[in-house]
Write a structure and sequence with these properties.
The chain is built from three helices and 18 strands. The strands form five sheets. The chain has a six-stranded mixed sheet with strand order 2-11-10-5-6-7, with no helix packed on it.
């Protein structure tokens, strides 16, 4: 008896996919006994027995456990006695991660093969974002992060529009960061970040622009001119206010001196305090007016 499968000893698949663990065989010329096929899970503890999952003997298939690993198990060939004892597993889940052993026996011949199955989660769609401004001459960094997925995850930035990324930019394939220390127009473009692992890939995009910094000299001139205009407006308002205050006593005096001709002059009275109220209330106006 000789097993003839030449597939890899370790197989990586994504959750939800299906897989076939190869186990083809060729009986020897002296192997004349009853065919017996066994698939089991190898115990990581060498002191414990392996977990028998499925067998084929006497032309009948048997399932030996209610273990979660038994879900979706079957022989990939309709008749495993024809030289193909490969095992198929549908709808993989993390519970199927294990080392499997195929044992084919046809007395006096016997042979076995082990294969490890690694069930991984594909990367989720990553999030792209930017830190720092888009002003020319300033630093800016692009970030990419996938919230889910089996490690190791690898990140790679490339520019979809605008040509290859200039060599001055540095990127980290582990953290998903692309750093531009001195931004310029040559870095502008549409960037794509792709995150991958052994079983899948996803990506996101971001548009990086390059804006010229504001004219600082123009801003300073604008501030100075605005301040001067404000001072001029305040001076004009102050002058108008002083003019109104100075003109009011003059107007009151002219009105009081207008005596109608048909009205006799009033008798003279002592000067009251209220007569000089307008000037006494604002003595500082005397010097200004």
């Amino acid at each position: 008896m000789q097993l003839t499968s030449k597939g890899p000893q370790t197989i990586q698949r994504a959750e939800g996919e299906s897989v076939t663990l190869g186990c083809t065989y060729t009986p020897g010329p002296l192997d004349a006994g009853e065919l017996d096929i066994e698939w089991s899970v190898v115990s990581p503890d060498t002191t414990q027995k392996d977990q028998l999952l499925m067998s084929y003997t006497g032309g009948t298939k048997y399932i030996h456990t209610n273990h979660a690993l038994a879900k979706g198990l079957d022989f990939s060939a309709g008749d495993p006695s024809k030289g193909d004892a490969s095992l198929s597993i549908a709808l993989l889940s993390p519970a199927h991660r294990a080392t499997y052993k195929c044992k084919v026996k046809k007395p006096p011949g016997v042979d076995m093969r082990k294969v490890s199955l690694v069930v991984m989660a594909k990367p989720s769609v990553p999030k792209c974002w930017m830190e720092g401004g888009e002003l020319v001459g300033e630093p800016v960094s692009l970030h990419c992060k996938s919230a889910e997925g089996s490690t190791p995850l690898k990140y790679m930035w490339r520019r979809e529009w605008g040509g290859a990324i200039p060599s001055a930019a540095t990127q980290n394939s582990v953290t998903g960061e692309l750093v531009i220390s001195n931004h310029s127009q040559s870095f502008a473009g549409i960037y794509l970040c792709e995150v991958t692992n052994a079983v899948g890939a996803e990506h996101c995009r971001i548009h990086l622009r390059a804006h010229k910094p504001p004219n600082r000299a123009g801003m300073i001139v604008g501030i100075v001119v605005g301040s001067l205009l404000l001072v001029i407006i305040l001076l004009i308002f102050t002058c108008l206010l002083l003019y109104k205050l100075c003109d009011r006593p003059r107007y009151e005096k002219e009105v009081s001196n207008e005596i109608r001709e048909d009205v006799p002059a009033p008798e003279s009275r002592p000067i009251s305090r209220g007569t000089s109220r307008s000037t006494s209330q604002h003595p500082w106006l005397t010097g200004l007016c």
